[in-house]
Structures are given as structure tokens and as C-alpha cells.
Amino acid sequence: MATDSQCWHCGKALSPNKPNAVRRPQLATAVPDDSQPPPPPIQTILLYVGLTAVTLLILIATIRAIGKAPLFLVSGSTTPLVGWQPITDSELQFTLNLPEAWQTVELDRAPEAPGLRSSPPLQALGSLFDALVADTQLLLLGTADTAVFPSGAPVFVLVAQSQRLQRLRPDEITRYVQQQMPENVTLEATTRPADLAEANRGSLLFNIEQGEQVWRCLEQVVPGSSGIYLVVTCTSFAQFPRHQSDFDTILRSFQPLDS
Fold first, then answer.
1. Which of 157, 150, 127 is nearest to 251 (CA)?
2. What share of the chain is helix, strand, coil (3-state, %, to 5)?
3. Residue ranges with strand state E in 178-212
4. Predicted pLDDT at 44
């Protein structure tokens, strides 16, 4: 120190005029740290950019798909009863409730569809549809039997669609059907639902004579965005009273899935 008179280490006297010049350690000069990782290569950057872009595209597509999802209106008639299940076609065009024991077949794509179309019940309804309007398409068959149309009288529902009938209101369709019924079809009654929510629908009760067999059918006319749906429930004339309550439930549950 400047005030020291002798060396602290060896005891030598110091000149008072020459204070001890203490060497102070010099600070080390900063050197670049080679331990810092190098910047990522351009390939890695492009990879992250690509993954981010793909993620955004998937997110946008998902949002658009959700926005275009069919509109399903929940009501008392569309809620399945105990022992029933909702059935929706693969194209998401419509839905309806059927008993769990029933089986369904999409008639526009199933391998067994040609054989079913030639069965007596569908032949009878096909002849009726051809007499009404030529562009009717059979979409879905639901049947209560363990095997589709075994020997005996089946109990079934058939969903068909026509674009040409879309030009008419449901009440005009029922009047048109009355005028175009073939000779083997007897129209028993036409009704309009009392429920205002279903005021755009119409129902027909009719019999179809096919040789010695008489089918009794309850049909509902339902407008949809892509055409008029014809939902027909049928069984033999003798069995109809036993299944009429189920037929009413099936027809009330039918709903087009409009996007």
C-alpha cells in the first residue's frame, strides 16, 4: 500500500518517497465461446415450416368440415326409445330410429341389393314408384326379420328419394299420388300431421295387391334439400295392426340431414 514502510513478505525497508507499486492482476480478455451451438441448417428450418403449414391446412379443413356437417335437430321424435337405435346412411343424407333387432341395407351400394329389389315386397313398391315418378331411387331398407325377407310376410321400412317431386308441396304430392295410383293399389287415407313442426309432411295409408298377398303400407312424404323423401313402412294386411305403433314411431323419427 502507499502507506507501507516495509515489505510484508521479506521485511525490507521501503523508501517513503517510493510507495510500493502493487501489480494488479490484469483482467482476462473475453474470447469467443466455442461451446455455443451453431445455427440450425436450412433443411431443418424448411422441415419445421412444412410441418407448420400442413398442421394449419389440416386445422382449416377440419373447421370447414365441421361447418358443413349435417344439421341434426334434436326433438322428442328423434330421441331413440329404449331398445331402439338411430340409423344414419353413409352419405349423411337422413337419419331415423329403428328397433335394435332390425337390420338395414343401403340399396344403392350393398352387394345384395339386386336380389332384394327382385323380392316380392320391393317389386310391389318399385312398381308403385315407377307409376308415380320415374326418377325414384331406393336408398335404404330396414327389416325386422333376422334374415332379409325370409319365407313369410316381412315387416320393413323403405326410404326412397325423388328430385322431380320436389317441385310439388307435400299436399300437392298426396293429391298427385291419388291420381296416379295403379289399379292394384287402394288408397285408404291421407293425413297431415297436427304438429306444426311437421306441417310440411304428408302421410298416406294404402294397400298393394300382389297376387294372393296384400301389403298394407303407411308412407310419409318428407321434403329435403336434395329431393323429396318417400318413407314407406309395410307388412302384410293381417300383421299391420300389430306393427302400426312402431311404424308411426319410425316415420316420426325420420329427419333429413340438411347442411
1. 157
2. 30, 30, 40
3. 185-191, 202-210
4. 76
Please tell me the distance from the alpha carbon of residue 234 to that of residue 228, in angstroms, as a whole number. 19
Strand partners, 191: 203
Question: Can you tell me the mean pLDDT for 189-211?
Answer: 72
Amino acid at 60: I
Grid-cell match 310376410, residue found: 153
Q: State whether residue 172 is helix, strand or coil.
A: helix
Note whether 190 and 203 are within 8 A (CB). Answer: yes
Q: CA 119, CA 84: separation in Å to the nearest integer? A: 26
Cα separation, 184 vs 125, in Å, equals 11
- The per-residue pLDDT for range 118-160, each reduced to its tens digit, is 888 898 898 888 888 888 999 999 998 767 777 677 999 999 9
What confidence tens digit (pLDDT) does each residue in 221-246 have? Answer: 888 888 899 999 999 999 999 999 99
Residue with cell 310439388: 168
The three grid cell numbers given for residue 192, joined into one nine-digit string: 297431415
Residue 175 backbone phi and psi in degrees, to 5? -70, -40
Mean pLDDT of 15-28: 54
Strand partners, 140: 106, 159
Backbone angles phi, psi at 214, to 5 degrees: -120, 120
pLDDT of residue 196: 38
